[in-house]
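Working notes for the structural subgroup meeting. M.R. asked for a predicted model of this chain before we commit to crystallization trials. I am recording the input and output together here so anyone reviewing the notebook later can reproduce the run.

Input as submitted:
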Amino acid sequence: MKGPVTDALAFAAARGRLAASAQMPGVGSRARRRVRRLRRGYAWASAAGGAALLCIVLLLQPSADPVDAPVADRVIAPPPPISASSDLGDVGARTIASSGAERQAALSCAAAASPGTVQACDAVWVGDAPLIDVSDTSLAVGPDGDVQVTWHVRNVAAGALKLDLSRVTVAVVDGDSVPSPTPPSDPGATAPDVVATAGSSWWASPTARYAFGGDAARVETLSRGGALSGVATLPAGSVAPAGRPRVLIQIALAGESDGGRRTVLEGTTAPLSSIETTAVLLDSAEPRTASDLALGRLGALVCDATGSADDRVPDRWGTDYLWTPTCDPIWLAGDLLADVVVRSDLDRSPYTRVVRWSAVNASSETLTVDLGATTAVLELSPSVEPHESRLWASSGDGIARIDTLWRSTARRTAAVRGPGSQLVQIAPGETVAGSAAFHFPASTQAEAWGERLERTTPVVHLVLAAAGVGHDALVLELVPG
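Returned structure, recorded in token form:
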């Protein structure tokens, strides 16, 4: 279907070709060629009644053709940034019941709405792939009930995005699955040009969604791979105790289509586990020490998420890092996870120690976990005495090695992978699983490495993405049974 945003983003549909052409080297200089041609002219004449032969001298002339000049390298200019007036390819209708994870969720709105005015816009899919990613956005509910959203919008398009930042909406929603006759309210910008609000649904009808108008007073170009971020604060009560909140971000492309329409991009995070679930877990938790035995209980760590940069350890590849705060260890009461399996295998052929793990959601509520932050840690076995030094052998790909995670008998270190996030919802009775491999050098020290790794025990740190832990992080510890 051709929708109201007919003119938008052709190169989003040809992202692969454009990415390749942007890196294509210029045409190299051609080799010199010299061509000489001999032009020969012959003239013969004969006179009637006589045998005289007139010979006309053959004239030889070299060619005047010029030598080919070298061709300069061709410079390919980058494509213009994507805006509302670009070609977005086919625009598809979007409804409450439809899904289009491989396309970009967007709204087609009348451009006449003034800033702060709520309007109902056509819900559409645009492009052939997402243009923005908001998965690194986080939400925290403080002890007094206030809500803080740390939002991130990353450009994942094939080129730069030209954005209208005069009205960026950061909304906390719970449900967003049925139409609401009441449009969201604009409490006023909590930061320059940012609206922070809350509501149960942004659907105005099965085919239309609410959005705030903008005036294009602030237009910026976001480079490919670049990100925008900020912090928005909402008052207490914005998240219901039993709710599973998620964050909706709306940000408009600059300009208008030929039809005079405004294009607003939408990104939504996965819903978090409810405040009630985490409150029950934390209220019934018991302190844990280094000498305790598990006895079938599930261990966890409560970590201050506002820690310093000193808690970050770069991995050996230099691309990601481990967040390694010192945390309060606890035992969780009740049945949160069941059938926990953690096994590790040593393979001396490719020189790896592989950790595989799985667990079943034994609770009555859908849980949200962050698989992108999950880390498998290899601790020495038998365990050593707690000590303050943290000598990590981080190897990337979600695995690390350390003598012990215990800093003292009552304090323990977490290992959380960053900076990416991958929130996954686990319904009651469903299984969550993962694996990681620790690679050690294939050298004369390989056997020593293998013996050292055989003396380690794996523990998997799995982050429970929850709304009720405030500015703390709740890290579940999975160990072999």
